[in-house]
Design goal:
Shape: globular
CATH architecture: 3-Layer(aba) Sandwich
Strand content: 5-15%
Helix content: 25-40%
Largest sheet: 3 strands, parallel
CATH topology: Rossmann fold
CATH superfamily: HUPs
Number of helices: 4
Radius of gyration: 14 Å
Bound molecules: zinc ion
Order of helices and strands: EHEHEHH
Structural class: alpha/beta
CATH class: Alpha Beta
Number of strands: 3
Number of domains: 1
Oligomer: single chain
């Protein structure tokens, strides 16, 4: 079902990967909006790039923010005025990821950079608690 255009804020993290896969599956024509900021992990940028290719390379706008910024929550997950993941439990999100074939395994959540997540920062702990992978 065609539902028109949508803007999906996308970070390369688990929630925004799920939101983007959901938007595509739901029939939206998403334009991906990605924010770059000083200190953003290279691994997150690489993950974002890989995930976008995997999801068919939707139109993509990357904005660079001048100020240093550490997001205090997942940057993405919001779709236009919709919050597709709002109120979902970890089990719901796992099910949705499976159903959509969303490549959440490629997502990067860690605040640090490197070849693998540190496993100790708040984002890693949160992912271990609640994310599909
Ligand atoms: Zn971490």
């Amino acid at each position: 079902m065609k539902r028109g255009k949508a803007i999906v804020l996308f970070s390369g993290g688990v929630d925004s990967t799920l939101a983007l896969a959901w938007a595509i599956r739901s029939g939206y024509q998403p334009t991906v909006l990605e924010f770059d900021y000083e200190g953003r992990p290279e691994a997150e940028k690489r993950a974002a790039h890989t995930i976008l290719r995997r999801l068919g390379s939707p139109p993509h706008v990357r904005l660079t923010l001048g100020a240093s910024l550490r997001p205090d929550g997942e940057t993405g997950g919001y779709l236009a005025s919709q919050l597709p993941l709002h109120g979902m439990t970890a089990a719901d999100r796992r099910r949705l990821a499976e159903e959509l074939g969303a490549p959440v395994d490629l997502a990067w959540s860690c605040w640090k950079d490197g070849d693998r997540p540190c496993g100790r920062c708040e984002k890693c702990k949160e992912r271990a608690r609640s994310a599909p992978t």
